[in-house]
Write a structure and sequence with these properties.
Length: 142
């Protein structure tokens, strides 16, 4: 790998690993209630950015609508994705419910802000068909 290639893809290096991991996360509000306005989305992004930094991850993109948010996170392999998700949802729920009590209570999500489920999709790198072709093309030892 050339240094230029590594810089363009922002490769992470550790003692025993070279990696490039991104995940697309989607979190939905409880009962898909239309809770978010622009101000809440901005605050949610700030909270989630801080949580990612505490995990040595980076929130690359964030956006959302009234009932859900999308995140693109660049993370190291030492992170268990489920732990990152639990922290992102738990911390943001705590702060948003405390800071926007009137709005959240008026909409009626109760003490739970996020739905317990979430979407996580790996992204980045070559399409699966190209990776599959590359692996198939490798020669087996004689």
């Amino acid at each position: 790998m050339s240094p230029r290639w590594e810089q363009s893809f922002e490769i992470r290096r550790g003692n025993h690993v070279v990696c490039h991991l991104h995940v697309h996360l989607v979190f939905v509000t409880k009962y898909r209630r239309e809770v978010f306005n622009d101000d809440m989305l901005t605050r949610c992004e700030e909270i989630m950015r801080d949580v990612c930094q505490s995990f040595e991850a980076e929130l690359r993109e964030f956006n959302g609508e009234g009932d859900h948010v999308h995140l693109l996170v660049h993370y190291p392999p030492k992170i268990a994705l489920s732990k990152l998700v639990n922290s992102l949802k738990g911390v943001s729920s705590r702060y948003l419910r405390a800071e926007y009590t009137g709005r959240i209570n008026r909409i009626g999500t109760g003490s739970v802000f996020w739905s317990p489920s979430y979407f996580a999709g790996s992204c980045g790198g070559a399409p699966l068909s190209i990776v599959k072709d590359y692996i198939e093309s490798q020669k087996r030892p004689a």
